[in-house]
């Protein structure tokens, strides 16, 4: 290691091991989507339709529909259920189904949008763990995908660290960091939660840019099957298909530390 | 308006049968036999037998759900009288006549009854076939009678020629073990279906039997027995000669099928340096893999489907957008893409690179189609 101009260089981390596909069976998934229905979900995105700008809630719903479409095209045996977290945690559609139209029905049950300065995830994890036992009995694995959108409310939980019964993924939508909020703190708490709770490698993505296509892109990475994932640091997708190097996407100061584009 | 319901005790028996039968028994129709038409207490079961189905009606009584059901056999089987004339001692200890000892509290009773009746039906059919006055048939039967798992069926009736159908299990090997990683719950098997017309007198030119290979359905992920070209049945051929040669052929086909699994696996792995780590790949049969790609700001999924004819047949590709939706809210997909430069003689790395080049070009067309489709919806 050479010191030059006051900088200490550290050797780069070793490249990830090349991809292999060993002949081992893998389970179909039961996936629970949990939508944050705090009033911050009504904040507007930068893009809209004829009726006006989309809200975060609109985008979360659309991204879930896109996810289900793609996931069933990958393997039609995966199934989905829906719940929401506002002041409390509540089911929108408890029975797992592989019918994508059930998502529409579940979304109609989102009635109350409330404001809360607390986000206790314990009840959510308890419900997921209960479903996970049933999934396991059917040779399936359970995954919880949390779509969270509060910029100043740091979530917490009292779930025991020894109980790793399901995989947890998080999609975090937030405002640009400023003096009135703390999205970085929220993000860090979510990262810790992932490590404490998730059975297989969980992924977390965040964005404050207000662009639906970025959320769709992150949700696409979440399509990856937990039993076939690499660690988040080694994610190499989506891979660019252009033969020339792609124009790099601009990142503004609205991104928090530790994000991946 | 009353909703059709099955009385709970009867429903428990039916659910147990559906979940625990060693082969797939179908419920064909259900109806009511009592004055209240919304109480369902009768149904038809289609039970696999000799590579076909036998259909039996199971008749419960909703007004008395504790009682054992009646079973009505098909019109061809008027001579089938299970349990009649059979003394308790002639049945093995574990197979008591469960109709006599019907325990309504045990949800397994119906399945036990059906399996017992099926075993007795096999004995009945064996007797019928044994009584056929056809020398050639008697000879053929003699050479295969000791094969474990053999089933046979005598088909006759008005305006139907008399025929005997055999389901001959092939290959003593445990196919399940040969495919590593498979989580098949049922034992996979391949059968030769042989149908002999009944002719009576021994002739110099006995009629050629109809032959067909049939496998358990799950095996189709690895091998399509319908595509195996059967050896011709030459003059003077008999099963004792035909079967060993056929089994040799099948053993080599299975070996080839397993080699092809590994080739498909290598191909999927060869795609990773170009397309990135797959979102999900079929790690057991290697028939499909999906990848996430981006072209500019257009993110989309690339689905690969590999047929059993790979590498002779190129993979089927479908692109799926993450940003464009049709009027039903479904993400827009391309049609199946199969026309692109391809040669089965390339090594897997070259196959992967060529497909990468093709998709890199094709995704620009796909993006145009997606944008146009969305534009049209907005008009």
Automatic annotation (TrEMBL), chain A:
GO cellular component, one term: BRISC complex
Top-level taxonomic group: Eukaryota
Subcellular location: Nucleus
Keyword Metal-binding: no
Compositional bias per record (Pro residues), positions renumbered to this chain: 10-21
Keywords: Cytoplasm, DNA damage, DNA repair, Nucleus
GO biological process terms held by the UniProt record: DNA repair; positive regulation of DNA repair
Principal location listed in the UniProt entry: nucleus
Positions of the UniProt region annotated as Disordered: 1-21, 238-261
Record protein name field: New component of the BRCA1-A complex
Automatic annotation (TrEMBL), chain B:
Signal peptide feature range: none
InterPro entries assigned: BRE
GO biological process: cell division; chromatin organization; double-strand break repair
Pfam families recorded: BRE
Major location (coarse): cytoplasm
Coiled coil: none
Similarity comment: Belongs to the BABAM2 family.
Name this protein carries in UniProt: BRISC and BRCA1-A complex member 2
Naturally occurring in which organism (per UniProt): Daucus carota subsp. sativus (Carrot)
């Amino acid at each position: 290691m050479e010191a030059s101009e006051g900088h200490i260089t550290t050797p780069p981390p070793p490249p990830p091991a090349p991809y292999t596909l060993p002949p081992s069976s893998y389970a179909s998934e039961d996936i629970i989507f949990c939508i944050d229905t705090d009033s911050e979900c009504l904040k507007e995105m930068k893009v809209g339709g004829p009726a006006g700008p989309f809200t975060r809630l609109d985008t979360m719903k659309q991204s879930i529909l896109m996810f289900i479409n793609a996931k069933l095209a990958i393997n039609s045996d995966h199934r989905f259920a829906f719940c929401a977290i506002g002041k409390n945690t509540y089911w929108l559609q408890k029975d797992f189904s592989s019918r994508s139209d059930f998502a529409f029905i579940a979304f109609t049950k989102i009635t109350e949008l409330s404001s809360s300065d607390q986000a206790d995830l314990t009840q959510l994890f308890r419900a997921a763990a209960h479903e996970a036992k049933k999934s396991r009995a059917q040779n399936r694995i359970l995954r919880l995908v949390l779509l969270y959108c509060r910029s100043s409310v740091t979530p917490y939980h009292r779930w025991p660290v020894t109980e790793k019964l399901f995989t947890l993924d998080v999609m975090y939508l937030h405002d640009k960091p400023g003096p009135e909020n703390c999205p970085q703190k929220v993000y860090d708490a979510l990262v810790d939660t992932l490590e404490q709770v998730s059975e297989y490698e969980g992924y977390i993505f965040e964005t404050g840019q207000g662009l639906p296509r970025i959320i769709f892109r992150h949700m696409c990475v979440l399509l990856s099957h937990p039993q076939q994932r690499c660690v988040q640091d080694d994610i190499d997708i989506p891979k660019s298909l252009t033969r020339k190097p792609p124009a790099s996407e601009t990142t503004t100061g609205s991104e928090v530390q530790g994000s991946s584009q | 308006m009353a909703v059709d319901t099955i009385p709970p005790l009867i429903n428990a028996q039916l659910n147990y049968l559906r979940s625990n039968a060693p082969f797939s028994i179908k419920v064909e129709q259900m109806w009511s036999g009592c004055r209240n038409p919304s109480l369902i207490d009768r149904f038809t079961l289609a039970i696999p037998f000799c590579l076909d189905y036998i259909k039996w009606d199971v008749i419960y009584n909703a007004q008395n759900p504790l009682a054992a059901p009646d079973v009505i056999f098909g019109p061809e089987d008027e001579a089938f009288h299970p349990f009649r004339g059979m003394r308790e001692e002639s049945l093995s200890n574990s197979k008591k006549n469960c109709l006599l000892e019907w325990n309504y509290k045990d949800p397994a009773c119906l399945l036990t009854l059906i399996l017992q009746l099926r075993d007795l039906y096999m004995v009945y059919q064996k007797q019928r076939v044994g009584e056929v006055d056809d020398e050639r048939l008697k000879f053929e039967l003699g050479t295969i009678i000791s094969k474990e798992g053999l089933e046979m069926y005598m088909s006759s009736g008005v305006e139907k020629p008399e025929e005997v159908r055999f389901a001959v299990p092939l290959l003593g090997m445990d196919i399940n073990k040969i495919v590593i990683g498979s989580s098949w719950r049922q034992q996979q098997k391949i059968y030769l279906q042989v149908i002999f017309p009944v002719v009576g007198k021994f002739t110099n030119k006995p009629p050629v039997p109809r032959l067909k290979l049939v496998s358990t359905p799950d095996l189709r992920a690895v091998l399509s027995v319908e595509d195996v070209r059967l050896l011709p049945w030459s003059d003077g051929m008999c099963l004792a000669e035909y079967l060993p040669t056929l089994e040799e052929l099948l053993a080599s086909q299975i070996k080839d099928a397993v080699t092809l699994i590994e080739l498909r696996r290598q191909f999927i792995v060869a795609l990773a340096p170009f397309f990135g780590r797959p979102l999900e790949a079929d790690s057991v049969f290697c028939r499909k893999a999906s990848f996430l790609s981006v072209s500019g700001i257009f993110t989309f999924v690339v689905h690969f489907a590999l047929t059993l004819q790979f590498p002779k047949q190129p993979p089927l590709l479908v692109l799926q957008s993450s940003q464009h939706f049709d009027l039903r809210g479904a993400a827009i997909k391309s049609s199946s893409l199969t026309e692109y430069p391809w040669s089965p003689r390339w090594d897997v790395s070259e196959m992967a690179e060529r497909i990468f080049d093709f998709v890199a070009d094709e995704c620009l067309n796909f993006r145009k189609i997606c944008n146009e489709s969305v534009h049209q919806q907005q008009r």
